[in-house]
Amino acid sequence: MPDLVTGNAAIGQSGGPTAVINQSLAGIVEGLQTGLAASGQVKRIIGLRHGVRGLLKPGAEGFVDLTTIGKDKLEAIAGTPSAALGSTRDKPDEAYCEKILTSCRKHEIRYFFYIGGNDSADTCRIVSEKARAAGYELRCFHVPKTIDNDLLENDHTPGFPSAARYVTLAHMGDALDNASLGGIKINIIMGRNAGFLTAAASLARGGQSDGAAPADRSPPHLIYLPEVPFSTDAFLADVEAVYARLGRCQIAVSEGIRDAKGEEIAPKLMGTGEVDAHGNVQLSGSGALGDGLSDLVKKGLTPKGGKTPRVRADTFGYLQRCWPYTSPVDAEEARAVGHFAAELAAKGDAAVSTILVRTSNAPYRAECRRADLAAVARRTRHVPPEFIAGSNDITDAFIDYCRPLVGDLPKLERL
User: Are residues 139 and 207 both part of a single domain?
Assistant: First the structure.
């Protein structure tokens, strides 16, 4: 039996919510209730209101006692989208993490579980290092979550499959709308630095594109990722070629598309835009990129003295994150990584990020494993070259990768 420290456990949720983040919360709580809490090492299971912010509130104002939460209640929470405890966008620096450690000492927290992306992994890393330097026994566990699918070491991250399912279904229905009325339709999809979610729109085709020309592909005809330099001139030429032949064109565009210099396209089209807490131009809460691309297409494709083509744009935005009809694979795996973190804690592990590793594609299988926090913290995974086809499409390899994750899709038919 490993040497286990006795104290309280704290669980927080961080970053953008997802449809399955509460499955991870439930997995951790379940694992603790049947493991360290049952053996007496964990005295209380504390839920943190709005992530690490809960630790900085006076007394226990930011705490929710989850020690004896009932199975039925926990199951209902697990199946509910968005962060049940509330989330935070805070990116703790050294000074902030020092305050976190001070609060952990004050409340006898010895096990810290943080569900989130690479910044959450970095918070765990810094707090763990500070605790070790101070001689305070604190075990830190990062549990992965992000619809962007951009965490290193992971085959994919909980939250992504459900968001990919939403993007796929939305494009399936939108393609029929576009075919009914014609015109050019632009859909802006989340992903500032990684284009996995935008690439998922390709699943709406119902099969592989086999390297076909844009006008010969099932919609979406064009897909633009932030990993590929975006040229407005090439974009207009791509759209014109499809529209001239089909009278319609459906386009999936990542909100984070960049030019050859690595500069984001959205701020250029927006002129000036709302800036978030970290100094980044707000992309997901604004329809400006879609409007800017629409104006670009209207001006670029309107013949002199001729009729302006019908162009519409939708920004999917936050709807992608918490649509309540999840991927079954996603819900199961999100629960599993939380449970696995609690199991690692019971084995005496510390300073760990739980990860998902694919072990088989046909049939699909994946398993939970551990990784060092430093391997995940503050690092971004991008869509690999083998998933990208030219400047406006993805490869069949991506279809094979993503298709098992989203669940069954409806079969749609037209006359």
Answer: no
